[in-house]
Recover the amino acids of this structure.
């Protein structure tokens, strides 16, 4: 009912996107001029360069064949699902004839869940790795043949957990783990890790480093680094529950983006605000097609399926 009150028509949806995309009035994407007139079929024509553009061109909705209101319904439903959303669920809710369409839409929206210039974590931050996938024989330590290796950073907020960041990495070497820390944690922050040697150079990079040696402490890893282990457990339950483990390693990073988006906003009681944030970022997202999504590998994966 709330959605129907906010967005009763296609025109209302277009006006909402227009307000987000051009809050100060129309701006031509070609020349930057602000003077334009609108044709009957909805295209804006710049008076300066005569370039044509629509309110959805250059956004996540670029060249969509479905009504914009269907996209709004999908995003409203996506942000209203506490435990995430599957392509099959979206297909049923919208009555889409094609599973591929629902799958493509969700992957586009997952890309909109991360702001490129988002704030880095700060203060004290736990960092550790975990694996996603089934049991493997003949591997030792942090080695893996088929499982995905995921590095997690979680802010320490008293006894609780602040914001988190997750990313797949090809291996547990310093060349894989340290760039992640530099990307997601503010310089000068204190990074809390186990005794893995790959983190030894953190002080050289401008970070405080507090390490817990699991063997010497006599405690379990989840006791020494409780926040990252809690996040890892929740992430695995989410992948296996909501998505039934049907996640390709090739696209795993984008599922992790969705998990991060939901976890960092877990205390929000305003669904409308989550919808607004997602819509705001979808308007700024560069267009991507189904072909591009299928062809684009994950940030560190081999593209194979995970052995659940």
């Amino acid at each position: 009912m709330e959605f129907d009150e906010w967005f009763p028509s296609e025109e209302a949806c277009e006006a909402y996107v227009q307000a987000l995309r051009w809050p100060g009035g129309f701006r031509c994407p070609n020349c930057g001029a602000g003077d334009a007139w609108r044709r009957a079929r909805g295209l804006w024509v710049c008076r300066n360069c005569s370039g044509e553009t629509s309110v959805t061109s250059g956004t996540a909705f670029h060249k969509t064949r479905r009504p914009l209101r269907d996209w709004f319904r999908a995003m409203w439903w996506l942000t209203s699902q506490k435990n995430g959303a599957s392509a099959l669920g979206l297909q049923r809710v919208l009555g889409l004839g094609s599973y591929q369409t629902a799958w493509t839409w969700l992957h586009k929206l997952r890309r909109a869940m991360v702001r490129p210039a988002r704030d880095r974590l700060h203060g004290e931050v736990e960092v550790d790795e975990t694996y996603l996938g089934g049991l493997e024989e003949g591997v030792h330590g942090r080695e893996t043949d088929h499982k995905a290796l995921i590095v997690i950073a979680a802010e320490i907020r008293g006894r609780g957990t602040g914001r988190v960041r997750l990313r797949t990495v090809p291996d547990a070497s310093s060349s894989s783990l340290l760039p992640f820390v530099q990307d997601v944690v503010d310089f000068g922050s204190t990074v809390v890790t186990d005794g893995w040697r790959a983190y030894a150079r953190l002080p050289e990079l401008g970070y405080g480093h507090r390490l817990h040696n699991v063997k010497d402490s006599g405690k379990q890893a989840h006791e020494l680094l409780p926040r990252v282990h809690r996040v890892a457990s929740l992430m695995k339950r989410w992948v296996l529950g909501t998505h039934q483990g049907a996640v390709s390693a090739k696209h795993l990073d984008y599922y992790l983006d969705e998990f991060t988006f939901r976890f960092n906003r877990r205390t929000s009681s305003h669904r409308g605000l989550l919808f607004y944030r997602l819509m705001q970022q979808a308007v700024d997202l560069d267009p991507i097609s189904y072909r591009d999504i299928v062809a684009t590998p994950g940030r560190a994966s081999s593209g194979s399926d995970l052995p659940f």
